[in-house]
């Protein structure tokens, strides 16, 4: 997998797998994985064409179409996906103590 290795790759694959049933169809698993991975990689622009180029350099055109469909047309609920993400992530955060405040830092993965 581009940009990840060892335990990070395994953890990422497990995380994405837990989101697949929320997006409504198993055929959306690969575009979900590629989209999430592309957002984390050091790509100058975070639009689907550069993400397609970095996640599938040998088949940019078909990956571009797949990502466009996944992001813009596939019928999945962003609310359900965000709820699942919260269900997965919040317990990991809260095991270090209760959440007292949220600090949102959008500079970690610039868009």
From TrEMBL:
InterPro entries: IS701-like, IS701-like_DDE_dom. Residues 19-111 form the Transposase IS701-like DDE domain. This is SRSO17 transposase. It comes from Rhizobium tropici. The lineage of its organism: Bacteria, Pseudomonadati, Pseudomonadota, Alphaproteobacteria, Hyphomicrobiales.
């Amino acid at each position: 997998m581009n940009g990840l290795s060892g335990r990070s790759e395994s953890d990422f694959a497990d995380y994405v797998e837990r989101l697949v049933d929320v997006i409504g169809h198993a055929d959306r698993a690969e575009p979900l994985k590629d989209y999430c991975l592309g957002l984390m990689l050091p790509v100058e622009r975070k639009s689907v064409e550069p993400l397609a180029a970095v996640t599938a350099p040998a088949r940019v055109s078909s990956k571009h179409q797949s990502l466009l469909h996944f992001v813009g047309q596939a019928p999945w609920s962003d609310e359900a996906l965000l709820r699942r993400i919260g269900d997965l992530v919040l317990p990991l955060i809260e095991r270090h103590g209760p959440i007292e405040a949220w600090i949102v830092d959008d500079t970690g993965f610039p868009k």
